[in-house]
Write a structure and sequence with these properties.
The protein has 332 residues and is α/β, with parallel strands linked by helices. The protein has ten helices and 15 strands. A hairpin with a 4-residue loop joins strand 9 and strand 10. The protein is globular.
Length: 332
């Protein structure tokens, strides 16, 4: 017997991701020999909205392919997850794939969207609540790369499901991906599961095209990071003096997004000056691509076994359902 939760959007659990960590990570990253800023900072309110536009582009195959997989195998996915699950989504996004999942599941107990952008998070929570009026929606504003609180009482659900759609697991270096998978494993517990999207290795030209779209939306998304640094940290980046570039690094099996300085310049940020040579870049995102076997091995290192895998006909993308390897998953 499960306790009853009120439907609709519940009070926000605000973990107050602060600008202090943003400032520290930006300054540390720009002082490295190979300049790098963590990709999570691409997703302020404007960045999140731009990424939603990227997902609609013809050049960007992952989103439509993942949605196609979910529609094709929705009954199998629902059976794997089981009834009365509490869904924790890491990065709430535009909610389209979430809508497909919740529509397929049997009597989901609660939906917990987790996002670092409060405005984007609350908009996503409202959209889901409007579409599923009987579903408790419990938003959490947090940096989900750290352990986040579980706002749903254990008595209200049968199992916790961590939902991580898209190809975002590819943003982590492999060793960090293992740590994050282990963190999700701990979050859902021994009886829980993880439903995760993973982009697959393919023709590098197709990858380059997907991350260098001809409409320039990805470039705007990438350069918005500089706009955010200017706004929140008082920097003086000239956005016109940087260009977007996506590179395929074959030895690492990943796309890298860079902001490349078009000339020698100096940028003032907080209390220091950062110098750039012409052609020097800031790496803003990794996007690792995997084989099915490679991701299965990665998950195993995190104490997870892959129970089921679904792909499209062209093997562009994959969705995996994983559970802890040393626990028994039961619907009883």
């Amino acid at each position: 017997m499960f306790s009853t939760l009120a439907s609709g959007v519940h009070s926000l659990v605000d973990c107050n991701p602060t600008s202090d960590s943003f400032r520290a990570d930006v300054q540390e990253g720009l002082n490295r020999e190979d300049k790098h800023i963590p990709s999570k900072y691409l997703y302020d309110e404007r960045g999140s909205a731009l990424f939603d536009k990227i997902c609609e582009l013809d050049a960007y195959y992952p989103t439509r392919t993942e949605k196609q997989i979910m529609r094709t195998y929705e009954s199998e996915i629902a059976t794997a997850v089981g009834a009365h699950a509490a869904i924790l989504e890491y990065g709430s996004g535009s909610s389209e794939k979430t809508h497909l999942l919740l529509q397929a599941l049997e009597s989901p107990a609660a939906y917990v969207p987790i996002d670092i952008s409060k405005e984007h998070l609350m908009a996503a929570a409202e959209r889901i609540a409007d579409s599923f009026p009987n579903l408790p929606v419990m938003p959490v504003c947090a940096d989900y790369t750290a352990r986040v609180p579980m706002p749903v009482q254990k008595e209200a659900y049968r199992r916790a499901l961590a939902y991580y759609p898209g190809s975002t697991i590819g943003n982590f270096l492999p060793e960090r991906a293992v740590s994050f998978l282990a963190q999700m494993r701990a979050q859902v517990g021994e009886g829980g599961g993880i439903l995760i999207g993973v982009d697959l290795k393919k023709d590098p030209d197709r990858l380059r095209h997907a991350y260098n779209d001809p409409k320039g939306v990805t470039a705007a998304f990438n350069k918005n990071l500089l706009r955010r640094i200017n706004k929140e940290l008082g920097a003086d980046f000239n956005l016109d003096a940087f260009k977007h570039e996506a590179r395929w690094v074959s030895e690492e099996g990943r796309i890298e997004m860079h902001l490349v300085s078009t000339r020698a310049q100096a940028v003032r940020i907080v209390d220091e000056t950062i110098s750039f040579e012409e052609g020097e870049s800031i790496c803003t995102e990794y996007s690792h691509k995997y084989t099915i076997e490679g991701f299965t091995a990665l998950a195993r290192q995190a104490g997870l076994g892959i129970n089921a895998t679904w792909t499209d006909a062209d093997s562009l993308f994959s969705i995996h359902y994983a559970t802890p390897t040393n626990g028994v998953v039961s619907d009883s």
